[in-house]
Fold each of these.
Amino acid sequence: MALLEVLIPTYNRPHELAKCLRSLENSIKNLSHFDRSKLAITIRNNSTEYFEQYKNLIDTYNPIFKNFNISSFDYQFTGFNIGTVNNCVGGMLNSKSDYIWVLPDDDIARFDALSISIPVIEKYKPDFISGGCIDKSTIEYPSNEIGEDNKQPNKILDVIYDRSKVLLFLRKNVVQLQEYIYKVQLVKNFLKNDKHVHLLNDMWPGLFGIFSLQSEKSFVRLEKSLGIFRKGDPRSEWRHLWFKLALIDWPIISEKLFKLGWLNETETKVSKAVFREIFPNLSYRPDILLGLNKKSSVNPFLLIKYHRYHYFIALLKSPFLTFKEAVKRFKKYLK
């Protein structure tokens, strides 16, 4: 059984998966031969096309990972599109490892992601690890970089045992999936409880994080990222749904977690507000603020309910900023 499993959910993106696997290959090279045997890699393919490209990619990496002598390299094909959440949750339920790091197919592993994670797990046996607590790594989507980043090694920021760990987690982005390592048994405990499963939606990474922090065991925070987020995917549905997920769905989840006793009043207040920093960007999108954009599925009355002051400020600024942006684009077009 592996100590750490890298779970890679993929959907119709073999070209992006190739970059992800190349970054893992690079990261494994920084592991000692002994630590390589503690690592497993699992790909969960949820695709509806590109089957031949996926087969060729797996055939390429099978001997590479075998030569590294990692614990296992497993390729699981779901057979049809079961959705991102179900694909990830299914992989976690099937895991036989102690810890799991879910690395989306279009993100990449930082060069020292594995060489810091495995020693941290062995030394502290935490219930939850979060990378990127000071410095989050991002690259543009078309980039072919493989995860060297700034080549500055990651460090442990702190190891926390008391209740302060919940607020520290909430004050950072709570859905950066590529930054989190979960203890598998805790995830399975969550998923095997019928009272918890109804909470699942696209914000589940933060949900699992808060659940993991209910224990008295350690929460390890790392200064730099584990996974590098590739921003700007033109095909992503998240770019349309993000405002609803962050500004409506997450506050709703926060209220439910308060009722379950997982968050106290102060934590719930902070949790509801964690994404309000995106309101200035919404000033440029009156179609979303007013609920006119069908793709975003935003209900303006719920925006008012959870973010009254911030909503009205964004709405008041919207006419001026929208006009300013239109003039800017027109000038650019004339050039």
Note: The chain has two domains: 4-235, 239-334.
Amino acid sequence: MTNRQDILEEQLLRENIRRAINIIKDKELKKENYIRSIVRNLISEEVMYEYTALQRLAAFVEQQVGNPKRPDRDFAFKQGYIQFSSSKENRERYVEYILDLANEDFQTYDAQMEPQPLSGEFVEKGFTSDEDEDKEEEDDEVITVRVQDLEDNDGDINLTETDEDDTEEFKLGESDIDEEENSGIKKISREVYKKMGQALRNQYEPLTELGMINKPLEISGRRYEAGELSEADLFKIYFKKNILLYASRYEDEYFNKVPDENVEIDDMSRDVEEVSSDVESEEEIFKF
């Protein structure tokens, strides 16, 4: 007659075998899902977009901004974003500067003008030219008086009687804010844009010669009628969306990680570990 101890041992053995089998099934399922994901990625490798603008934008983003299929690749925009590790505010300014620099290029091509070369001088000065500098020097000789200037000067409209040191306050463009405050962020942003700017120009410039989109579109809740948007407009809209999207992704990936706390380990896993340590291979489990 089988005693109670034998019955309990047999029940425990059967239970542990079932758990071990489930572990193997889970591993096999994960392998299968992994293979399926690879196949899906291979199948979706060739993606065709409805509009030329989106097709060209996708090529740019995959080269310079980000690609979930290649998370380890050193994308120019990504490397620029994550180097501002000490301040989220600096990262946000970096994104704004990249968008501003891109808009400068967009406006240049929209006006059918030649863009400024992305040289070392661009990194130092941004979108400026010798003509702009000469114009600024000429403008410095002109004092522009505003109503607020008069109020600050007790309403005295006869500025010719004001001391020269006082008149300096009224020059156009003068400000109490230090212009060099964000010069470091600007320079780094230009360095990054120098790397990705030419690729952006190559993708955008041909779109300025394409016609208008001949059917209505709805983007972010706004309806655009047929003929209201051009291919270039569509590129610009989704360029900004993707820059903000990937900035958010990199923010979550690199700066918003929170370690798991209070992780509870089921006592049942201890029995499974004991069984697993006694089993040398999956085949031996199925011999029972």
Note: The chain has twelve helices and two strands.
